[in-house]
Amino acid sequence: MLTILFDGIAYGLLLFILAVGLSITLGLMNFINLAHGAFAMAGGYITVIMVHRFGISFFWSLPAAFIITAVLGAFLERTLYVHLYDKSHLDQVLFSLGLIFMSVAAVDYFMGANQQIVNLPPSLDGRLQFFGASIGYYRLFVIILCSLLTIGLQLVLTKTRFGSRLRASVDDQRVARGLGIDVSRIFALTFAMGSGLAGLGGALGAPFFNIDPTFPLKFMIYFLIVIAVGGTTTITGPFFSALLLGVADVAGKYYVPAIGGFIIYTIMVAVLIFRPQGLFGRVTGR
Amino acid sequence: MTSLAAGARVATADPGAHLVAKARWRWPEFLLWLFAIALIWLAPSRYLLFNEIAILALLALSIDLVLGFAGIVTLGQGAFYGLGAYTAGLMAKHGIGTFPWSDPLLGLLGAGLVAGFVGFLSSFLVLRGSDLTRLMVTLGVALIVQELGNKFRWTGGADGVQGVMPAPLLGLFDFDIFGRTAYLYSLSVLFVLFLLARALVNSPSGLSLRAIKGNVIRARAIGIPVERRLVVIYTIGAAYAGIAGALLAQTTQFVSLDVLSFEKSADALLIVVFGGVGTLYGALVGSIAFKAMYDVLASATPEYWSFWLGLALVLLVLFARGGIIGLLTALRDRLDRARSARA
């Protein structure tokens, strides 16, 4: 019971780190980037290559995954995404779907279609007994790291000058621009950060998920649910919805394996029926 | 937005006259359908391919109704396609080639009803919220249906439904291995449903859908029952997709789990955009172009086909907004202008 809760929280926090970038970019630019999962996949493959091809420590591969995907994200934002902000949602969906298809095929070409398994470093392999709950060291590591990241994110958003500029831009882009805030620069930075976090999430998740080229497609629905349920105006909304989703998904797959896959969809439908604006979202004019 | 531009060109004060003018048949339309019929004699060895194109066109048409005329971005039309395919497939299989259950037309009806019903139910979820929620719901419904198709014993799981035996069409025409009956059958169904869709979008109800797509708040303010219109068009779209699936099951006599895959929905969405959103003919032209592209690119490297597909999507969004039909209309407008400048 406790073990499942624990695993679910680890999974939920991971989902949050994976999806938070998407949530902010969506709130900021009203841009639907379905290809967000491709950055996570990139992070996962960076880990696989570093750990298994070059024998570099898993711990070094985490910051590397963050930096490389962040740079990749910044590059794509400046060259491609920037042309799509004023286009319709349909165009954004098609464009990011196109990117997904390309990334899936490209990864298939370079890395092969089979699943990649990342072996844990020996220091994180093993379990800990704690009040009858069996806790994997790696999950504990994920929970601690993701919690620190979440707290850090929240601090950056609420306490720093960048954070207040970002929040101002999310709330009202035009007024923020009028006050002399360089919204497009903030957006580029945020996009890079979000992609980097997705990459880091992909790297952290690699030992769980056994990533393969179809990762962006498989996780697309998870991201969408996290954000549609949590709303895009805050990061606490997606945080709680990711936790809820993580715990429900793990518990569902454990207790009722026959219908476990449907649990998340049931939550999705229930939330939509009772709270169409999202569990934590507030009703906005936009 | 080519459709709006086209509307502005024949702007009249009288909406009735406007609709009548829009509903008039033009010569390229005749040409396209005559060509489709002529293919029966022109290329008798490729019936199976043409049959596939006709079915794909019907699926794309169903998306165009929902997306092009009501503005609902859907990633899950494959759910209804698959539901239709399974319904018709199971009906034909258990009817063992005899009248009521295995009759192809009744199969179409059953598939349309089942898919339409599920579409009707899920339309209430689709109505809620923004484009983002719609994406999530359409994708979610598709994933649920796919999971169900995989889990249930009577859908055959990953093996699919085998031994689908439709009775002879109208009790007269057997489905031959060359696909001649199949192509004629699919083409006729496509034509009839196309006529219906064409009549629908050129009706006052279709016009009100465009108003909703243009501006929901304004549409509501002038008294259009927004919710009801969206439910109706989404249900019709789902039924169309179901019928397309039924055609596939009956003519290929096999249903695989692939019909429910996300790729199927994405392909069909791409076809509509490729051909031109909100034009109806875009679905037809798009599926021809799509299959041609597939033939060229996938025969070289089948496993990397999705790369070229993705590239096509990206380029299309960045450079060619209206799709093929959009390009053709732009060309025609330029010719018209050149002609009127000379006169």
Q: Which tags fit this structure?
A:
heterodimer; A: 286 residues; mainly alpha; two-stranded antiparallel ribbon; 11 helices; B: 343 residues; 16 helices; disordered N terminus
Descriptive account of the structure:
The complex is a heterodimer of chains A (286) and B (343). With 286 residues, chain A is mostly helical. Chain A has one domain. Chain A has 11 helices and 2 strands; from the N terminus they run ααααββααααααα. In chain A, β1 (127-130) and β2 (133-136) form a beta hairpin. In chain A, α1 packs parallel to α5 (137-159), α1 (2-29) crosses α6 (161-171) and α2 (36-53) packs across α9. Chain A is globular, with a radius of gyration of 19 Å. Chain B has one domain (15-259). Chain B has 16 helices and no strands. In chain B, α13 packs parallel to α16. The longest helix of chain B has 27 residues, at 226-252. The radius of gyration of chain B is 20 Å and the shape is globular. The two termini of chain B are 29 Å apart. The model of chain B is unreliable at 1-11 (pLDDT under 50). At the A-B interface, α4, α9 and α11 of A face α8, α13 and α15 of B.
How is the biggest beta sheet of chain B arranged? none
Low-confidence stretches of chain B: 1-11
Output the radius of gyration of chain B. 20 Å
Oligomer: heterodimer
Biggest sheet character of chain A: 2 strands, antiparallel
Helix content of chain A: over 70%
Structural class of chain B: mainly alpha
Proportion of strand residues of chain A: under 5%
> Which percent range fits the helix content of chain B?
over 70%
The number of strands of chain A is 2
Mean pLDDT of chain B: 79
Give me the secondary-structure category of chain A: mainly alpha
Low-confidence segments of chain A, given as residue ranges, are none
The total domain count of chain B is 1
Total beta strands of chain B: 0
What order do the helices and strands of chain A follow?
HHHHEEHHHHHHH
Cα(first) to Cα(last) distance of chain A is 42 Å
Biggest protein-protein interface?
Answer: A-B, 43 and 39 residues
Shape of chain A: globular
* DSSP summary: helix tally of chain A: 11
Mean pLDDT of chain A: 80
